[in-house]
Design a protein that fits this description.
single chain; mainly beta; Immunoglobulin-like; Neuraminidase; six-stranded mixed beta sheet; four-stranded antiparallel beta sheet; 37 strands; 41% strand; elongated
Amino acid sequence: MKKLATILLTSIAFIAVIACGYKIIKPRLYLKQDIHMIAGSEHFIGTVGNLEETIQIIQSKLDPGKFYPELDIFNPYDGSLFPRDIASPTFIWEDWQPRTNLWLVSIRFDQNDNALRVLTDRKRWIPDKATWEIIKEHSLERKAYLTITGINRGNSYEIVSKSGIAFSTSADEVGTPIFFVQMPLPFARGKQYPELFQWRFGTVSSYDQPPVVMKNLPVCGNCHHFSRDGKTFGMDIDYNQDKGGYILTPVSEEMMLTKDDVITWNDFRGSASGKSSGFFSRISPDGKYIVSTVKDQSFFAMLSDPDFSQFFFPVRGYIAWYDIEKGIFSALPGADEHDYIQTCPAWSPDGKYIVFSRTGVDKKLLDILGGKDYITVGPDVRISDLNKKYKIRFDLYRVTFNEGKGGAPEPLAGASNNGKSNYFPRFSPDGKWIVFTQSPTGLAIQPESKLYIVPAEGGVARKLRCNTNIMNSWHSWSSNSRWLVFSSKTNTPYTELFITHIDENGFDSPPVLLSRFSAEDLACVAPEFVNLEPGAIRTIQVVGK
């Protein structure tokens, strides 16, 4: 897969080109015959009649028994399954034949021989809303066949290249909006300019970019999380030189964050020495508690490489909880052992269990840090160099919450003792599955990270089909347990968001790029499906410092 530097969000209409300009043709509501159109063309001049004649000439030149050099279809992937409520995607391809200067895009539906055909001189196409609804209607729970043919217009419409894929549309909708953050790269720039971060909240069904609901944050904001009902919002922040700060506030259309909304994990007085950063915090499904990593020490390095500009994992830490109503902190027995690192907690949907990442404390790594939370590396050092030098592997464990009393930790079968690092567990809302991130070593933003699925009680883990070739992580389930959103760098260092469908048996579909969620110069991370209506959050403002 070649990297795509940018995703151009242009749109097209049903048009025919005539000598005096463009004429809009009203789209048909259903496909009873072939539909022909020109998309994104700046140079193709002709009439409705010779458009159809041109397409017929091209079709007549196609030899079904001949092999044509293949072009690369970047989006969608072969076998993609689109949500019923998604806005039109960006069809993107690359043709490596220098003689091609025109492309015929054909979409054929298996219920008849009729097809939608687009003639374009650009290597991308975004259907308009009316066109896309037709495509979704005719591919609902059945395959549509996309073929892209490369043509040399200057040589009597010679066929130069050709490739095809299949896709379909699911009856399952996504339903809930996504909250996510866009951040500058490399990480050092974001750390220096936290005001460049922006948080967006939008739906996959919108033809506009998700609206920015929070920006110009005067402090460093990190991982965010919503309660299962969407009524409570929490976010790790560095507040007044306190890295253990945590914002906790009710959700409303116009949210005003003040110092009264801030708690600090440094108010937790556990037996372990040291301060708390309170990262990877998660609100319980009933909204009564928060769990977080406390008394932590991090192994951290900032890199100049924009692809992977930070190297991070905790070398100390355990799980503590906070009672929101009573305002009290406590360690969670079974996840507070000082000889182990315990982090990345996740609640089961019924609130009975916490699944978390655990590994033994490595004294060698502690000695390298020497009491600090970072190491300094040279400008040419890459994350692959650090992964070889500083290895760490986490297993997933499960412990009962038991109203904060905890219990005996048990390794989660399929996500432990496998010679890999396992982290970021996420329960499906129906309680059947856990999707987690696995990589050869490390924790967070790893080039070789892949998503795996395992039964919630443990069992045989399976690598998801949706994984791209580089970095797959920061995942979240839709409220109907049918869609998973995640981040990947497969197209660009500026991380993008993808979704995949997961059926009742835990089988997933190839990834679908959320192109309207992308940005040319900002990485999209930490997406979270939120159980709210679109527009339920319009602005989040920080009042005071």
